[in-house]
Amino acid sequence: MIESYLLHIGILIAIYIILGVSLNLALGFTGLLNLGHVAFFGIGAYTSALLLKAGVSFIMAFFISGLIAAIFGFLLVLATRKLKGDYLALATLGFSFVIYSLMLNLTELTRGPLGIPGIPKPVIFGFKISGLLPYFIFVTILAVITVFLIYKIVKSPFGRLLQGVRDDEIGLKVLGKDTFKLKAKSMMLSAFFAGIAGSLFASYITYIDPSSFSLAEIILIFTIVIVGGIASIKGTIVATFIIILIPEALRFLYLPSTVLGPLRQIFYALILLGILLYRPKGLFGRIDLE
Question: What is the pLDDT of residues 143-190, one digit of tens each?
């Protein structure tokens, strides 16, 4: 029993590591204050669920989920290209609410609040990944690949240009660089990885509904990045373990669910406030976003 529980937590940690490092690519390394990352997560989950239910192979559904999320990432950058800072944050937050509303109201496609049940488990080259241990190994490998790819991106010349957008966008424009294209590429890459995280989440849980991609999830993902540190991949990984594991200890207090849910949210808020007050750059952060 305890082994199954630990494997379940491990799977969630791997998925949220993908979400966290992908958000940090746009937020930390490019300076895009994106509060709509959970929308890409939801888009990927719903795309994958619908395709798998339609009989499409998992590999196709997995990559299409990322591509659809990336397209929405480009559209978001296009729509907010003249916004910065708090205004960009509010616009992206509004985008997440729009996607949530579509999930809730497009009942013919998403089944609305009833959600989509019976999502098939991944089948790769004829092998069905159905047990907890195989799925844990599977998502852990994908999380490691994602971290490696994003690390390579931020250390590349392209990654240094992204950091130039964050640090001195006007100076980069003076040098003749198209900062809109750089922002678009960063957001599309960030959205792509969030989309594939959504695909993994949908196939693991086998049931999704709009409540899985609500404001609470926005707070959770954003807290992971802020606690770990802006522009720190290592910090995001460490913070994912902290944010996912510590509140899980509350389960052993045998509190009623009506108390446990709000208490977990209070716990996230206290961690976030503590970090902002006493360590504004996070555990391993190197910069402050204006």
Answer: 999 999 999 999 999 999 999 998 888 888 888 888 999 999 999 999
- For the whole model, what pTM was predicted? 0.93
Give the integer Cα–Cα distance in Å for 198 and 16: 10
Give the orientation angle of helix 157-167 with respect to helix 179-205, to 10 degrees: 110
289: pLDDT confidence band, cut at 50, 70 and 90?
Answer: low
Degrees (nearest 5) of the Cα angle 61, 99, 14? 50
CB atoms within 10 A of CB 196: 26
Angle at 30 between CA 160 and CA 175, to 5 degrees: 55
d(CA 139, CA 19): 12
Bridge partners for 124 per DSSP: 127
Report the candidate in 97, 115, 103 with the shortest Cα–Cα distance to residue 53.
115
Q: DSSP string of 52-94?
A: HHTT--HHHHHHHHHHHHHHHHHHHHHHTTT--HHHHHHHHHH
Residues ≥6 apart with Cβ < 8 Å to 231: 24, 28, 29, 154, 163, 166, 285, 286, 287
- Residue 116 β-bridge partners: 208
8 Å CB contact between 74 and 184: yes
| C-alpha to C-alpha distance for 39 and 140, rounded to whole angstroms | 23
50 phi and psi angles, rounded to 5 deg: -65, -40
269 φ/ψ angles, rounded to the nearest 5 degrees: -65, -40
DSSP summary character for residue 279: -
Q: How far apart are CA 38 and CA 64, in angstroms?
A: 17
